[in-house]
Amino acid sequence: MKEPVIYPTAEDNRVLMVEEPAALFGRVESREQVIRKIKKGLPAASFEKLRAEFGVTAAELAATLNINMRTLARRKQSGRLDVDESERVYRLARLFQIGLNLFQDTELTRRWFAAPKEIFGGLTPLNYADTEPGAQEVEKQLRRIGHGVFY
């Protein structure tokens, strides 16, 4: 695992948690800050940011996140996802960030998540990560790759 980045100035002397999804949270001071944001409900725009990160359609991402498209439209109107939806968005965003930290290339990360893998029963890592246990398996495989162990 990479070491956290320490910002050098007194004003920015805080730790960036390198596995927190930068696209959703920017600079993160603490795990508690992330938890508060999720409990409040992530902005509905987080869905679109995550969709852009993965380079998939809204329907594909909504299916993986188990969010009905009509519900998603209502969330966009209200401006916030609910807590459960926020947790699922966070889960996938965190996986993408772990992949990005590993592969150091957005397109390569997208391709890894989009390619079916035998280890996931022929599903793509993105589709396999639609549940917490599936997401844990995807994370485990990313960590194995990071340690030079391939499936």
UniProtKB/TrEMBL annotation:
Residues 34-94 form the Antitoxin Xre-like helix-turn-helix domain. InterPro entries: Antitox_Xre (IPR011979), Xre-like_HTH (IPR046847), Xre/MbcA/ParS-like_toxin-bd (IPR024467). Pfam families: Xre-like-HTH, Xre_MbcA_ParS_C. Residues 101-148 form the Antitoxin Xre/MbcA/ParS-like toxin-binding domain. NCBIfam families: TAS_TIGR02293 (TIGR02293). This is DUF2384 domain-containing protein. It comes from Pontiella agarivorans. The lineage of its organism: Bacteria, Pseudomonadati, Kiritimatiellota, Kiritimatiellia, Kiritimatiellales.
